[in-house]
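A sample follows:
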Amino acid sequence: MIARKNTLKIKVGNVFIGGDAPVSVQSMTNTDTRDADATITQIKRLQDAGCDIVRVAVPDVSAAQAIEKIKNHIDIPLVADIHFDHRLAIESMRRGADKIRINPGNIGSREKVKEVVDEAKKRNIPIRVGVNSGSLEKDILAKYGGITAEGLVESALNNVRLLEELDFRDIVISLKASSVPLTVSAYRILSEKTAYPLHLGVTEAGTIFSGTIKSCVGIGALLCEGIGDTIRVSLTGDPVEEVKVAKEILKAVGHIKEGIEIISCPTCGRCRIDLVGLAQRIESKLESLGRGLKQKHIKVAIMGCAVNGPGEARDADIGIAGGKNEALLFKKGQIIAKIPEQEIEQVLLEEIYKMQGEPDPVAADLKHKEHLNQN
């Protein structure tokens, strides 16, 4: 387990951020917040995927007012994303937002920021100071000759200082840029200068494919250095995919030790079974049956041949190594059986479910389909 930097611990709804709290996963809805029903439906999907905290855009008063209905139908903390109008931040808090995300510098005067802070104090609501590379102050751009990591950090700390002067310290900080090196550099500098919890993300990362890669590199690098208390993967697409990727990042760096972890080889000329199809079907089957991240940690290896399979994956709890029209089934590196190729998927799933203490997956799936047909 990677040692994390010790940061201040704050509470967002029923979730803690920073300190000894686990790294939390956030996402943001892409529905029209004013359409409360559509937003609720999407948030419930995010909850089911493992999202810990959700953010909604609040462009006007109607969106702020919709927060009240949304909050009454979801089970995770809700963050209101505010730009420019301090009144929207105040209305969002009054309607039940658990946290607000603002850039104090674009809210307006000190008096307006104070109104927001006073409301947040009264309701014990934290504020995330969010600074984006695309909205740096003109004087900072001039000082550093453009967008730099140092400029991002200076902007964030200036805004934090304003909140501190108003005797407010229930703060989370985020620095966002679409450039991975810039993002990583900025967070490294910021982490040395503050003890406030940090929200990580590569903003406007891109589509599901390219955005996933950029997010894994940027967020993963920082987490491996012990930096970061909460994360959001920013993807152009279904926000549920953001949560899936975020969970995989946390698993890859060792922050999540729950659920089923699949490791599989890239295959080579020695592979004599359809390993690619098998790995995809196993992964899809486990996901479609709703198994995974919140259960007992089991490492499953799906390897292409017996030359390296059991050895390379000896720390796996269960796995198979392909042969000619068959596979070896092994546990903790020890071979326990040979399986005909047509039975590999079923046998491996059965073994996984036994280790999870779950019923036979095939029988469970048939029972589920039978229930659907009856209704």
Remarks:
- The longest helix spans residues 149-165.
